[in-house]
């Protein structure tokens, strides 16, 4: 779990609708959002747009338990969804999910690929690394939530494929895909021969 602490300051939002949301963003620099989940009813809130955008610069923010202060009262949440403007660097809406320390949560954690340049397939075989996935859907208690998940490619050779089951997950963390069975053990990364390699040339000659 990351040592970074994230806090969002919010206020209860009474107005709803697209017109009210546009006014909030244009006139007050506020962002409409909603917090839901747990044993409480969903609640419309507003956030400081600049504050949220600043937090979004940190990768850990997307897979981290956040302290949400609504008019002084605190709740723990995770960022569940974002609606962004299609052409501008503007966030239009945010969904926050309440979490409990005793209840597991499901979230997408970013994948960090390590030892790519020194892997067998790249350093010895001159291969090229292909990333099939950049994040993994996981389930865990909030206390076990990792900032990211490492995928070690050190021993991956040319022609090899790394699957979800090959990833060493942190303690208390499980893959949602694998919980559905072996058929969902999807590829995460592979190392392939570079195009135009001598092996490819030999195969082409043999075919001719």
From TrEMBL:
Residues 199-208 have a biased composition (Acidic residues). One of its GO terms (molecular function) is structural constituent of ribosome. SUPFAM superfamilies: Ribosomal protein L25-like. InterPro entries: Rbsml_bL25/Gln-tRNA_synth_N, Ribosomal_bL25/Gln-tRNA_synth, Ribosomal_bL25_b-dom, Ribosomal_bL25_C, Ribosomal_bL25_long, Ribosomal_bL25_short, Ribosomal_L25_dom, Ribosomal_uL5_bac-type. One of its GO terms (biological process) is translation. One of its GO terms (cellular component) is cytosolic large ribosomal subunit. Residues 9-96 form the Large ribosomal subunit protein bL25 L25 domain. CDD domains: Ribosomal_L25_TL5_CTC (cd00495). Gene3D superfamilies: Ribosomal protein L25, beta domain, Ribosomal Protein L25, Chain P. It comes from the Bacteria. Keywords: Ribonucleoprotein, Ribosomal protein, RNA-binding, rRNA-binding. It holds the Pfam family Ribosomal_L25p. Residues 187-208 are annotated as: Disordered. Residues 104-195 form the Large ribosomal subunit protein bL25 beta domain. Belongs to the bacterial ribosomal protein bL25 family. CTC subfamily. Part of the 50S ribosomal subunit; part of the 5S rRNA/L5/L18/L25 subcomplex. Contacts the 5S rRNA. Binds to the 5S rRNA independently of L5 and L18. This is one of the proteins that binds to the 5S RNA in the ribosome where it forms part of the central protuberance. This is Large ribosomal subunit protein bL25. It comes from Marinagarivorans cellulosilyticus. The gene is rplY.
């Amino acid at each position: 779990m990351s040592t970074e602490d994230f806090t969002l300051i919010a206020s209860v939002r009474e107005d709803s609708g697209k017109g009210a949301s546009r006014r909030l963003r244009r006139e007050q620099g506020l962002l409409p959002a909603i917090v839901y989940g747990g044993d409480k009813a969903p609640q419309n809130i507003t956030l400081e747009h600049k504050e949220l955008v600043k937090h979004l610069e940190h990768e850990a923010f997307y897979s981290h338990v956040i302290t949400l202060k609504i008019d002084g009262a605190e709740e723990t949440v995770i960022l569940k969804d974002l609606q962004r403007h299609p052409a501008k660097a503007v966030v239009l809406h945010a969904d926050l999910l309440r979490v409990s320390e005793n209840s597991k949560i499901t979230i997408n954690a970013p994948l960090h690929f390590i030892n790519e340049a020194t892997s067998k397939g790249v350093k010895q075989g001159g291969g090229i690394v292909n990333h099939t996935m950049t994040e993994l859907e996981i389930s865990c208690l909030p206390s076990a939530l990792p900032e990211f998940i490492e995928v070690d490619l050190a021993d991956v050779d040319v022609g090899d494929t790394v699957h979800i089951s090959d990833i060493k997950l942190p303690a208390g963390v499980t893959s949602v895909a694998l919980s559905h069975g072996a058929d969902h053990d999807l590829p995460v990364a592979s190392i392939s021969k570079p195009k135009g390699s001598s092996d490819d040339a030999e195969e082409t000659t043999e075919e001719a």
